UniProtKB/TrEMBL annotation:
InterPro entries assigned: AAA+_ATPase (IPR003593), ABC_transporter-like_ATP-bd (IPR003439), ABC_transporter-like_CS (IPR017871), P-loop_NTPase (IPR027417)
A Pfam short name: ABC_tran
Ranges where the ABC transporter domain occurs: 5-238
PANTHER family: OSMOPROTECTANT IMPORT ATP-BINDING PROTEIN OSMV
Name recorded for this polypeptide: Osmoprotectant transport system ATP-binding protein
Organism: Polymorphobacter multimanifer
Length: 252
């Protein structure tokens, strides 16, 4: 079941430099929210605070109204789907064992895990025979799909995606983005997607958050964001808009 996220005046610094500043934000259940901004804006830091890999210096995160700090980090993370840039599959485990990692930690018996692995492979549109493959035998797109299957195997209400398309070719990234969008809807998730690619955010997300220097400078629908006058927003939008205009001119 999708969850609600509430960030209350989140602040964190590293080496005396502010990384996130006074983040006040409510994300209702069921949204597909894109988090974007220039490199170093604080995107991944906010994601890592969300799954308790980092603790803020001040402020708190509420998940479905409960303070996330009151639950042990490992226990919380087993309820959250997480897929990161580079995927991070365990290289000496089969694809099936990678997908079943969290259910195994949660005590699911082998027969149940085997059924779950086949179900997850179907879900991300990979052949069931991939369960016995090793990660080194996968293409980049296949590995990304396995990472997504692993993130979904614990039946989370919250899915966190950190630049999941960064190392993929355009065709593969588009296919994976389509699959994520479809799974978000079908599984009834709250999804927070970190991306540098504003075109992905504008065409996939229901809501877009823009960080600049650790501050939340925009929180809008895709249509509203295009008209936002903030310089950081306009700088992000300039490139995809220019590319779109060039493509339109070519078709004319």
């Amino acid at each position: 079941m999708a969850v609600t996220l509430e960030y209350e005046r989140i602040n964190i610094s590293r080496g005396g430099r502010p990384v996130l500043v006074d983040i006040d934000l409510v994300l209702p259940a069921g949204g597909l929210v894109a988090l974007t901004g220039a490199s170093g804006a604080g995107k991944t830091t906010l994601l890592r605070i969300t799954n308790r890999l980092l603790a803020p210096d001040s402020g708190r995160l509420l998940i479905d109204g409960a303070d996330a700090a009151n639950e042990p980090g490992p226990q919380l993370r087993r309820r959250i789907g997480y897929a990161a840039q580079g995927v991070g599959l365990f290289p000496h485990w089969t694809v099936g064992d990678n997908i079943a990692a969290v259910p195994w930690l949660n005590g699911m018996e082998r027969q149940g895990r085997d059924r779950l692995v086949l179900e997850m492979l179907d879900l991300v549109e990979l052949p069931q025979s991939f369960a016995s493959r090793m990660p080194a035998a996968l293409s980049g797109g296949q590995a990304s799909r396995v990472g997504l299957a692993r993130a979904l195997a614990a039946r989370p209400g919250l899915l966190l995606l950190d630049e999941p398309f960064a190392a993929l070719d355009p065709e593969t990234r588009n296919e994976l983005a389509d699959r994520i969008e479809a799974l978000h809807k079908a599984q009834g998730l709250t999804t927070l997607l970190v991306t540098h690619d504003l075109a992905d955010a504008l065409t996939r997300a229901t809501r877009i958050l823009v960080l600049d220097g650790g501050r939340l400078v925009a929180d809008a629908t895709p249509a509203a964001l295009v008209a936002d006058p903030h310089p950081a927003v306009q700088a992000l939008i300039a490139s995809p808009l220019d590319q779109a205009r060039r493509l339109v001119r070519l078709t004319e």
